[in-house]
Design a protein that fits this description.
The structure is a single chain. The chain has 453 residues and is mainly beta. It has four helices and 39 strands. Strands 2-3-10-9-5-6 form a six-stranded mixed β-sheet, covered by helices on one side. Residues 11-17, 252-257 and 444-452 have low confidence and may be disordered.
Amino acid sequence: MTSSTLLKYAMAAAALLPATPLLAAVSFSGSQREIIEITPDKNSGLENIFVVYDTSAVSMTYTATNGNVTWYRYSNLGGGFAEEISGVSHSGNEYTLASVEGDMGYIIDDGTDRHCFWVVNYLPHALELHSAAPAAEQQCENTAIVVNGSGDAIHYYSVTGQQRTVDRQIEVKYDTQVWNEDNTQYEQQEAVKSFEYLRSELTITPPVYCRTYFHVSGDRFLRQWGMAQEVESELFESKAIEVNTTAEQQQDGEGDEDKKSNQISAGVTGLGGSAPAEISFRSYTTDGVVHHEWQMANDMEFEDITYRITDRDLDYTFMQQGTIYVRYVGSNSDGSCEQYGETYTVTIGDSELKCPNAFSPGASEGVNDEWKVSYRSIIDFECWIFDRYGNEIFHFTDPEQGWDGKRNGKLVKPGVYYYVINATGADGKKYKKSGDINILRYKTYGNGQSAEE
């Protein structure tokens, strides 16, 4: 059979499911240990991969469903270069290959059925672990472990000659810290990193974030055979770090109707709005973070940093109009690893101050029964209320507050009163306002109608 014809057969085997499953048709004899079956990649054209501990004394038998069984064997060149195997004995419908060659592909042509599979001879690739230790040079982006031992990549080849790798599942167990979004904290957890084969240096990404020992063990085949190997490293001190941050505005002013219903919207959807804006910034870090710094800048690139605050957390009151960018920077003990938190944008709107000229205290509770200014970004405020004779009736310094129309706990008489206001905006604008306040009182009649007194 020509190589091109054989390749077509092999590819047909990849596309068609044989009438008789391979596992029901093929058996091995003479193996010291259990034959381990692995499912190959779907597009490899192979039905199975058989891992044999040592193929030196192993035979393979195929139970045919049809006559005229032909065996082929191929290497890394693929099924198109497969060679027919001679010396296959048969008794009845059983065909036996007395000497199985490992790390080879096999094609069995059984008339209408064609089976393609790979046999791995494990012994030449046997895993040996002698020692493990953290690498002398560590990076901020990953953690490296040096393993003394052997356990090379075990390859197999598709029917078209494409190289694939068997996952040996060599495991590294260690402790690290993981961010818990729900609890807003880093929590220590055991982690497992799996590797296809043993390299001289195993790299863990993301890096380890706390002190830990590394336990290297494997592989999947030795585990199944009850022969797993394991080595443990010395205690590792991590240099890598990770940070998370939060920002919460203590007094929003854009949605709290009870406290700041008299604020004029600044049209800001994020942090800020009307000054003074009190915002609490919090940092959450892994154990390796030693140095803390909050930075404020006028630009998103932080080329113009205006403030540096060396604290883990920051409570700050924004008093000036404009946009400020805030971020957290954490670093380890020697400053070799540095991490940035989220960049927060705080926008304070232009100042504005408006004064009403009438209200009706005592008429209807909660409805126009308090004299309040409407404002935005007012950082300094003082207001006096006078009667028509110039007597001071009320004085307050917080624009959130107002006058309830009372003097010494009693409602004043309807009429005209006067206010004087001195204020300063976050944008530096000065306000000097004065005007009259008309107090209205309504009398309700029996028919439910009301009229101004």
